[in-house]
Structure formats: C-alpha cells, structure tokens
Design brief:
Bound molecules: 2-acetamido-2-deoxy-beta-D-glucopyranose
Low-confidence stretches: 15-19
Strand order of the largest sheet: 1-3-4-5-6-7-8-9-2-10
Helix content: 10-25%
C-alpha cells in the first residue's frame, strides 16, 4: 500500500512537472502574462542602458491584461537613490506577440517565448532620436530560475548580437524590493 501511494505521488509530481514546462514560442495568449513577475536578467547591446542609472534597468512587478488587449506593465526602478513606480500601457499591434509602448522614445516589445506559469523572455527595440537600441529581458514568477533557462537566454542574446558580458543577473540587484 505504501509503495502504491509512493508511486502515485511520484506520478503526480511528474505530471505536475511536465505541465509546468509548456513553453510557447508562437500564438501567444498575452492575457496569460497577467500577474506578478520578478526580473531576473537584463541585456542590451548598449550595456549602459541596463547598468545603474540606465533607463532600461527596470524591475517588473506585474502585468495586467486590459479589456482592449493592451497590457498594463508595472515596473519600478531606482532614480537618484529613490524607488520610482513606472506604469505604462503596451498596445496591441498587428503582429502577434508584439505590443508597442512609449518610454524613453518608442518601443516595440516582442514576446520571444513564454511558459506562462514560470517565465517569459521579452525582446525590445527602442527607437530614440534616430537611434535603435535592442534589449532582452527575462522575467519569472519566482526569483530562482533554472540554469537551463538562463543559458537559453544567453543564446538568444548571442543570436541578436548581444555579447554575454552585456547580460546582467539582477535577481539580487533589486534594491527597491530589498528595503
Ligand atoms: C487601452 O486602455 C487603456 C486604459 O484605459 C488606455 O490607456 C490605452 O490607451 C488603451 N489602448 C488602446 C490601443 O486603445
């Protein structure tokens, strides 16, 4: 009996594990990105953008899907030693998995891949004064993310010409939530 229960338990754990690894890379359901997030990795081809004082050094708190298909993104960041809340709407575009927002210029946010219960990777293009900057962000439901996902992120960065040294692990750099 004990053995049977153990087997059943393991089967359930296994099934649960499987269910948690539904990675999607197309046909995104943006509304499933709703809820709380932690920012884990930040990368940009212009490294200063994600370093201290950089405009894209931001920490995602939550996403809310609005009725008009826009996403409401709530971030915070440190500005001159103070925690500042940043909330902006990302409006649906004709391209699937892509929304646009104004922040430090005009931005196109592309969802690259997502496992809605675990993590998602965001690729953005920032258009500002005739300049285009690209960046990639990894956000997760929990601060501890598997090394495989981080590795996958680095590969994506490489594919976009962003070197490994421009990838910053900010899991423990979020001074606002540490307090
Ligand atoms: C969607 O609704 C939000 C909140 O009401 C608004 O700020 C945003 O501009 C709307 N987006 C579009 C594309 O209409």
């Amino acid at each position: 009996m004990k053995l049977l229960l153990l087997c059943l338990g393991l089967t359930l754990v296994y099934a649960h594990h499987e269910e948690n690894h539904d990675v999607v890379t197309s046909n995104f359901d943006m509304s499933k990105l709703s809820g709380e997030w932690y920012t884990i990795l930040l990368a940009s081809d212009v490294k200063e953008k994600v370093e201290e004082q950089g405009s894209f050094r931001m920490f995602l708190e939550s996403i809310q899907a609005l009725d008009n298909s826009s996403l409401l993104l709530k971030y915070h960041k440190m500005i001159n030693g103070e925690c500042v809340e940043l909330t902006f709407g990302c409006d649906e575009t004709e391209e699937e998995g892509v929304c646009s927002a104004s922040y430090d210029g005009y931005n196109e946010f592309h969802i690259v891949e997502a496992d809605y219960n675990d993590y998602f990777i965001l690729y953005y293009l920032n258009y500002h004064n005739e300049e285009i900057i690209q960046g990639i962000e990894l956000h997760a439901r929990n601060p501890d993310v598997s090394p495989q996902i981080k590795k996958r992120f680095e590969e994506l960065c490489e594919n976009h010409g962003i070197p490994k040294e421009n990838v910053l692990d900010v899991t423990n750099a979020d001074h606002c939530s540490q307090d």
